[in-house]
Design brief:
It catalyses: L-aspartate + L-glutamine + ATP + H2O = L-asparagine + L-glutamate + AMP + diphosphate + H(+). The protein has 595 residues and is an alpha+beta fold. The chain is built from 24 helices and 17 strands.
């Protein structure tokens, strides 16, 4: 729900309400149901609203509580807001709305920045304290909701999207060479705090940032699952069957929590294990007439473009109101260009286009959906996890890089121009530093910790948020319920790796789902026209990489680009992604953002 923005100045000047207004207007798609601005001296806040909880104007933002001396903007949902409201009422607080935003404001007044530890949900927020001039920014544990910041000598601005900050103006749009190295090496993941632009940074997940009136900044990371067997003593000694039941019980709670809304909630049903489990558990809860949605594309390059056989099977089993969305070729190219425009950062996965088109259709029926993202990172469902089983901890980084990185550091010398190279293997160093940190019992535990806190946040989670919110659709991800993630982190690795990955989850699903779904080959949102670039898609990429803007920017070695364009389907990254699409998408994004 929603998009937020704001500015705090440290130079004695009043906040630029015009810039905050431009940032807010740039997020109209995220919040089509209302907008608001507020300012007081050096601080200003902006908000675009998507009405999900408390549909009245009492829940409008920015929300100002004069009695408490607080003003706030909030993006997300606190699934336990009703319980927190009752607790706060018991402490003497009075409420004028039934919104979770007001609960956040009063929780902040009662517990200060530590309130985040009491929140169950997805959130990014900014709270201004009138009497001290202090600004507090917070982001949820798994980074489901975004927060971008841009700081200069005299001010700090923040927003839910990077393009919103660009709309505010005066952003350093130079290419961050370290971020570029990550993009080309670390499977297109650019870890927080960096973005591809030098002047824009991201608030890391599970972080509260306190910004004093004089500009002093303090960050506190408040959550990180340790990925050790001793982390949850109450689960010590569980049998595989008991682990299966514990996972199922925790997932039940996570799915139930995400039905909290004053509008209907649907499900994005790919037909894979994860989304099918959500449908099954909602049916178990007694949800009748549940709206489910699946998407498909024409085949290309000998590759099927839909998984309707599986989604149909699940929809029929649980009697959902199912919507099959088949996208013809004529819609795909315009949608691709719109999807690039909706990206806060360059995102290579062809899932982006699928999610963008799916969101467009789904938003005509519901405002909120549950989605299965996160299960593969949390329960070890990807292909690079089995090779880490039994690997000595000191070899974890090398094994992970060999399985996951798009290419080695040395290969960049023939891909990027000299001005955009860095001397050090910054991506390799980043991974080695993370994997060597204390905690995590095994090499696989350490990699799952890294993927959960970094890759998950800056690839699938960001992708889902950007594409769904482009149509004012809120996506909720029960597999990223922080208590479920904590449980999965403590689960023995061999139980997660069983049955080709996600073993404990597959075992938990067998009493609910048909065997054809549980034991099917791993799937995804297929968009064959991007995996196998040809025709108008190839021309779009060619124009982006050979046009005036690309030549002037000079990111990529011309010989390398020519080689990719001459054989657009031959060059693949380690995990099989199209190498031409990776470089073409980056240039397309930069041009779309006017950089």
């Amino acid at each position: 729900m929603c998009g937020l923005s704001g500015e705090i100045r440290f130079d004695g000047r009043a906040a630029d309400i015009g810039a905050v207004g431009r940032m807010t207007d740039a997020m109209r798609d995220r919040g089509p149901d209302g907008s608001g601005l507020w300012s007081l001296g050096p601080v200003a806040l902006g908000h675009r609203r998507l009405k999900i909880i408390d549909l009245s104007e009492k829940a409008a933002q920015p929300m100002v509580d004069s009695a408490l001396g607080l003003a706030a903007v909030f993006n997300g949902c606190l699934y336990n807001y009703r319980e927190l409201r009752e607790e706060l009422r018991g402490e003497g607080y009075r409420f004028f709305s039934t919104s979770d935003t007001e609960v956040l404001v009063k929780a902040f007044h009662r517990w200060g920045p530590d309130c985040v530890g009491r929140f169950t949900g997805m959130f990014a927020f900014a709270v201004v304290e009138r009497d001290t001039g202090r600004l507090t920014l917070g982001r949820d544990r798994l980074g489901i909701k975004p927060m971008y910041v841009a700081r200069t000598a005299g001010r700090l601005r923040f927003a839910s999207t990077l393009p919103a900050l660009l709309a505010g103006g005066e952003v350093d749009t130079g290419i961050d060479r370290v971020a570029l190295h990550h993009y080309m090496t670390f499977h297109s993941v650019v870890p927080a705090e960096r973005t591809i632009l030098t002047g824009v940074r991201k608030l890391p997940p599970a972080t509260v940032r306190t910004v004093e009136a004089d500009g002093t900044v303090t960050d506190r990371r408040y959550w990180e699952p340790p990925h050790t067997r001793s982390a949850l003593p109450e689960y010590a000694g569980l049998t595989p069957g008991e682990w299966r039941e514990a996972v199922l019980d925790r997932l039940r709670v996570a799915v139930r929590r995400r039905m909290v809304a004053d509008v209907p909630v649907g499900v994005l049903l790919s037909g894979g294990l994860d989304s099918s489990m959500i449908v099954a558990l909602l049916a178990e809860e007694g949800q009748a007439g549940l709206s489910t949605f699946s998407i498909g594309f024409p085949a290309a390059g000998g590759e099927s473009g839909d998984e309707f056989a599986y989604s149909d099977l699940v929809a029929e089993r649980f009697g959902t109101d199912h919507h099959r969305i088949l996208i013809d070729d004529g819609r795909l190219l315009p949608a691709l260009e719109r999807a690039v425009g909706a990206m806060s950062e360059p995102m290579v996965s062809h899932d982006c286009v699928a999610f963008h088109l799916l969101s467009q259709e789904v938003s005509r029926h519901v405002k909120v959906v549950q989605s299965g993202q996160g299960a593969d990172e949390v329960f070890a469902g990807y292909s690079w996890y089995p090779p880490l089983a039994g690997v000595p901890r000191e070899e974890a980084a090398a094994t992970y890089a060999r399985e996951f990185f798009d290419r080695p550091h040395d290969a960049l010398a023939g891909i990027l121009t000299p001005d955009h190279l860095v001397d050090e293997d910054v991506s390799g160093a980043f991974v080695r530093r993370h994997l060597a940190a204390p905690g995590a019992d095994t090499a696989l535990d350490a990699v799952l910790r890294l993927d959960t806190s970094v890759m998950l946040v800056d690839d699938p989670v960001k992708r889902v948020d950007n594409m769904t919110m482009a149509y004012g659709l809120e996506a909720r991800t029960p597999f990223l319920d922080h208590e479920l993630v904590e449980l999965a982190a403590a689960c023995p690795p061999e139980l997660k790796l069983a049955h080709g990955g996600k073993g404990v989850l597959k075992d938990a699903s067998r009493k609910l789902l048909p065997a054809e779904v549980v034991d099917r080959p791993k799937g995804y949102f297929p968009v064959p026209a991007i995996r196998h670039i040809h025709g108008p898609f190839l021309e779009l990429v060619r124009d982006a990489l050979t046009g005036r803007a690309a030549r002037s920017r000079g990111l990529f070695d011309r010989t390398y680009v020519d080689r990719l364009l001459a054989a657009p389907d031959e060059h693949r990254t380690t995990l099989g992604a199209n190498a031409l699409w990776q470089v073409g998408l980056l240039e397309l994004w930069l041009q779309t953002q006017g950089i």
